């Protein structure tokens, strides 16, 4: 795949970039290793100042970087501004909390004595150079939620971003440089996917994190496993959105639309499968479908646009294949199911609601990365949990109920990294984020995320000789 900015609203190639050669990659790896040898010794006060400065610059740059993101991958401009603001917020959160999250831990006096020590502590130390392989769908946020904690922990970063968002990737390197981080603390590597293995195997790289597709995750995990290097993977999701009879149906239907079409439907944590109790199925579906039909599809630079184009021509083709397979096997489209007549150019797809889904349809098990919702009618809570778990993924989930007993049963029963009640899944720097099953392993954000790339070190001091003997 060429490294290029291709406007998905028009299909026009705006700018292309040459991939780095082997000699330049090696130079940058050496630069990262040298930077880590110095940056690891900085104190939290210095790191805090640097990251807060980066947040300030990002706030000042918000409109410009939002337009770059929208141009490169098609997200509505309002959503792009919100993404930039969220990144600045996360930077400030880690700047404020990293020192306490990584504070030395002290075992109990009884345990210290029992271990034969005079004193003992647990200390969090940085691992080193961390390679981040990141996707295009949230081209700023996906990187910052890795970079902010990694840098505050004393690590340095190498970014291999998706090839269709090169200008966003270069902006991030420049942002951290302008903030005052030493050269080499954060570098963007404009390389294709074929270069990842050699970089990851390099002895100067200590660990890797990847957000992306399941095949990409398998590849990085296999390489890192062979090299015995730490990885964190956040892969696909096919999140359930369960609606029970006690729910506020009007609010559930309204939220369901946002949960499905956020980022033009291209979000791992977007609700994709809507599992509705039979008692409220008709009411919910009528409201949900009506709102999906009312969405404005169009130019993502326009403030009034709800749904822009998919990020690539191949991405739209993948969605079309899943929808056509479902329709051919007996599903029904309550709305959508095709390309819109207008805009005529660009990689647009109509907001779609499919019902009558059966396990033999690909969309039942595969992630639909576009504005396509599937709805299921279930008889009771047990069936709702069974359908929710009938997926290879387990990233997050949404449940609408006002029954306390149901809340506890769903919390115990749903296999996912998160269960959000009476709202939609969202990431926040204070809360751990990640999945189970084929959605990956490890956690980003919160204290769990910052500790993923730390050497958890036991520091043990032997007891002094017993002079009485």
UniProtKB/TrEMBL annotation:
InterPro entries: Ald_DH/histidinol_DH (IPR016161), Ald_DH_C (IPR016163), Ald_DH_CS_CYS (IPR016160), Ald_DH_N (IPR016162), Aldehyde_DH_dom (IPR015590), ALDH_GabD1-like (IPR044148), GABD/Sad-like (IPR047110). Residues 3-459 form the Aldehyde dehydrogenase domain. It comes from the Bacteria. The keyword Oxidoreductase applies. The keyword Transport does not apply. Keywords: NADP, Oxidoreductase. Belongs to the aldehyde dehydrogenase family. This is NADP-dependent succinic semialdehyde dehydrogenase.
């Amino acid at each position: 795949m060429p490294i290029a900015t291709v406007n998905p609203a028009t299909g026009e190639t705006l700018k292309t970039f040459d991939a780095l050669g082997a000699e330049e990659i090696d130079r940058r790896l050496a630069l990262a290793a040298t930077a880590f040898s110095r940056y690891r010794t900085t104190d939290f006060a210095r790191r805090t100042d640097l990251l807060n400065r980066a947040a300030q610059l990002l706030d000042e740059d918000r409109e410009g970087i939002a337009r770059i993101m929208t141009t490169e991958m098609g997200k509505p401009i309002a959503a792009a501004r919100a993404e930039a603001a969220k990144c600045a917020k996360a930077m400030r959160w880690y700047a404020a909390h990293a020192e306490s999250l990584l504070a030395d831990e002290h075992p109990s006096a009884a345990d210290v004595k029992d271990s034969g020590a005079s004193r003992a502590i647990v200390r969090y130390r940085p691992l080193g150079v961390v390679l981040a392989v990141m996707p295009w769908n949230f081209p700023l946020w996906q990187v910052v939620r890795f970079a902010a904690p990694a840098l505050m922990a004393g690590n340095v970063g190498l970014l291999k971003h998706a090839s269709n968002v090169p200008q966003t990737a270069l902006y991030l390197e420049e942002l951290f440089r302008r903030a005052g981080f030493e050269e080499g603390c954060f570098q963007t590597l404009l390389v294709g996917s074929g270069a990842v293995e050699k970089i990851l195997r390099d002895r100067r790289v200590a660990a890797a994190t990847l957000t992306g597709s399941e095949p990409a995750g398998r590849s990085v995990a296999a390489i890192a496993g062979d090299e015995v290097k730490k990885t964190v993977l956040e892969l696909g999701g096919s999140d359930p959105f369960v609606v029970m009879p006690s729910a506020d149906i009007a609010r559930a239907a309204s939220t369901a639309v946002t949960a499905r079409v956020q980022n033009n439907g291209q979000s791992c944590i977007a609700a994709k499968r809507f599992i509705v109790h039979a008692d409220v199925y008709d009411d919910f579906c009528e409201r949900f479908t009506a709102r999906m039909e009312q969405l404005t599809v169009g130019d993502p630079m326009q403030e009034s646009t709800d749904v822009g184009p998919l990020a690539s021509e191949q991405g739209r083709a993948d969605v079309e294949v899943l929808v056509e397979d479902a329709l051919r096997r007996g599903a029904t489209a309550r709305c959508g199911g095709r390309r819109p007549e207008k805009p005529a150019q660009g990689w647009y797809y109509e907001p779609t609601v499919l019902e009558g889904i059966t396990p033999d349809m690909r969309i039942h098990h595969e992630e639909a990365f576009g504005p396509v919702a599937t709805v299921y009618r279930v008889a009771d809570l047990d069936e709702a949990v069974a359908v929710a778990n009938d997926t290879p993924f387990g990233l997050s989930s949404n449940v609408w109920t006002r029954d306390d007993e149901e809340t506890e049963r769903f919390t115990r029963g749903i296999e996912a990294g998160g269960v959000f009640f009476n709202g939609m899944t969202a990431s926040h720097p204070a809360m751990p984020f990640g999945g189970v099953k084929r959605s990956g392993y490890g956690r980003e954000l919160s204290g769990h995320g910052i500790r993923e790339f730390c050497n958890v070190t036991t520091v043990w001091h032997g007891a002094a000789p017993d002079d009485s003997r």
